[in-house]
Structures are given as structure tokens and as C-alpha cells.
Amino acid sequence: MSIPQQALRALTAAVGARWIRLSDAARETYASDGLPTRKWRPAAVVIPSSREELIDVVQILAHHRVPFVPRGAGTGLSGGALARGNAVSLVLTRLNRIIEIDAENRTALVEPGVVNIKLSAAAAPYGLYYAPDPSSQTACTLGGNIAENSGGPHCFKYGVTTNHVSELEVILPSGDIVMLGSPGGDAWGPDLVGLFVGSEGMFGIASRIRLRLVPIPTAIRTLLADFSSLRDAGSAVSAIVGSGVVPAALEMMDQNTVRAVEESIYAAGYPVDAAAVLLVELDGQDQAEVEADAERVKTLVSDHGARSIRSASSSADRAQLWLGRKKAFGALGRISPDLVVQDAVVPRTTLPDLLEEIAEIGRRYDLVVSNVFHAGDGNLHPNFNFDSRDKDQAARVEQASSDIMQACLRAGGTITGEHGIGIDKLRYMDDMFDSETLGAMRAVRKVFDPRELSNPGKVYPVHSCREWTTAQR
Q: For residue 283, which of 113, 217, 224, 346 is within the disulfide window of CB 3.0 to 4.6 Å?
């Protein structure tokens, strides 16, 4: 630990001694996030309780040039919330107030530590909800969702986090405060909100977040179709999207995932002999339109090999069908000491071939791969169950993950859809971008954070970035 004593005294005065964690055991608690293959112990942990304390903390760290890493609930899957060396882990979970629900304008003003699902619960009495719904929504925070531009099953129709953010109050790494966007969502110039969302903590901290809310649908129909092959299920996805029907959600799980779910407390009644199941949800404000779309989807999946189709219209039946999908990662997590959840995006038309290639990669490295993913977006989530204490097995997981990323790139895809680059995907950035482009990314980061104090060592490989300045132009 190499934080100046003067800085530690100032931080203690700002938040109180109880909310500064310096012991090895306390710091070890924050040494990892949802990615089990990386551990970095922070130099200290600081947990402010208010906007004012947060501003004080950032200004103290800036004054002493101490790097820091904003952290929410630690559910991230790319190592993006990890701090190392003399960096401070700046934990925002105590800033958890829903400041305002503006039902007339369909917005909410929140602090970054608000848990995702709690916003929808608070908005429900007004007939509204917050659409982006990561699988970790019962634990993940909205500030973390902003940092990663999180998605979720219902983002196929409603869009990811960036589509629901209208205004941000941002504490820059210098300690200065700026407003991005506007209450009504108009850009008023360059779209700096769009730039900030998904910046993975490198541009500063969103201390106040104004989010868009949408009306709760009055008509919902959820379908579960099962298939005897992954290829048939993948072809059905392309057929649904190509038909012009826009489901609220279009999710797929393979047999390994289905069996894990059905053997857990989250059993949802999925057929365990199916090679894949497809969960399709349709919603809207017009019952007849939703029912017509449901019948169209039934025909399409039947034409593409669905063995059976289960339909749910009551809230209880829908909740049962969704239970298995929402808790799939929890069900997989009980099988082994560690679980790696990978993340990549490919064109939907390549899904059948990619799923077969991922299965082959698993066999090549003698690993079990379970797939559960946002099929409508082509956002794949191959999962590896393993034991990180087995160094050979851990190495095979790393290599298999690399092979999957390369396969997705060859298919015209990208290396992340919603989990971010963090530290886990750094090794692939050279494969996607040339040094000039990486240098431009770093130059943009330096506009917000010239000293690179906020979340250093993440997203882009510094050694590959060409120095990019306006003088070159």
C-alpha cells in the first residue's frame, strides 16, 4: 500500500474511519468481481455515503494524484471494477437513493448505487418501469450499468442502457463537476451522454443519473419452444427477426444450461432432452396485436423444427418461464467452484455455425460449454464451469475463451456486447483495432482524465496505442 498518509487522513475526515478499509482481509473482499480469473487487491477501500462525500473523496484523490476505480455491486464480468497497486477502490453502494420519480415526464433521478430492479419497483405505482434488465438486476447497480452500457433480455426491443439515459451529473477525475445531456434527453450539441455511457469508469463517476421510464405493457405473451438441434433453434431466431415481428425478448439456452437449471432450485419445467430452448416474449398495449404476433411466432418456430411450444399469458406462468432464464447463471454457478461467463456478439445469421464451432472448441479443450444468450441480438454468452485451483484446467479455459473470441471476430462479430473490455478482453483489442484507432480512444479518454487516474489499466492496451494529437492533423 502506497497511499500518502496525508491523503489517508483527509479521506478519513471526509467519510469517517469506519468507511475506510485498510486491512488485508477487508481489501481482499474487493479483490475480484464476477470474473473469477483475475484478482487485484486495492491499496484501500473508500465507501462514501453521499454526493458531497463522494466529491470530497475524488478531490482528495486528485490532489494527491492517487488513482481510483469506481465500483458498484461487483457483479461485472470483465474485471473492470478491480483496483491494483496504489489505486483506491471507490465503492458507491451507499449512494442508493431514488431522488425523484417524475411520472409526467417518465423519468427518474437516481444515485449510482441504486440496485437496478428497485427502480422498476419504485416506478410501478405510476404504471412505469425501467426497461434494461441485466440477469444480475436484483444485485447490479445503475451506476455500474452506466459504466458498462449493460443490456438484458428485454433490450432487443427496448434498447440497452444508453437508450434510456437522458442526463448525467459527472464528477471528473479532477474533482470538477459537469452536466452531460439534458432533462428532456436532447443532446444540446455533441452527444456526451452517449460517449460517457459504456466508458467503463475511465471518464469519471456519474453522481446523479436521470433515466427514462416506459409504460408497463398491458398485453404480454411468453412462449417457450424447444428444439432437437442448436442449428434449428438458431435458424428459428433468424426467421423471427426476418419476419418483421419485434419480440420484447428473444433468448436461447442449450441443453447443458437447461439441465443445470432443472437440477437446481430454479427449475422452470424446461424439457431436459431438448438440444435448445427458445424463450420469446411479445408485449405491447394492444392485446389483439400481441396475440397476432404470438401466432406468427408459433408458425415460424414450428416451420423451423420446434418440437413443442408452451405458451404463457398469466403473470404467474410467465414468471415461471422466466425463472430459469434469469437464474441460469446461478444454476450454472452451483456446479463447480468457478464459472466464466464470456460475452461476444455475432451476426444473427451466423449463430448456427458459431454455436457448432463453440461446441467443437469445448471438446478440443475437454471443457463443458453451456450457452445462454440474447439470441435476438446475436449476443453470445458461452459459459465454462471449472476449478481455478486446477492450473491446467484454468489455462484451458483461457485458451478456449481466446479461440471463441477469434471465431466471433472471423464471423464479423465483436468481442463484447455488454460485459465490457475491462482487463479480460484487453488481449483482443489489437485484433479489432489498429494502433491509430486505439490511440484516438486514449486521446478521448485524456480529454476527461488527462492524468489517467480513473480506472487505469483497463479497456485499451497502452503499448499498442499510437500517440494521437491534433498536431498530427
A: 217
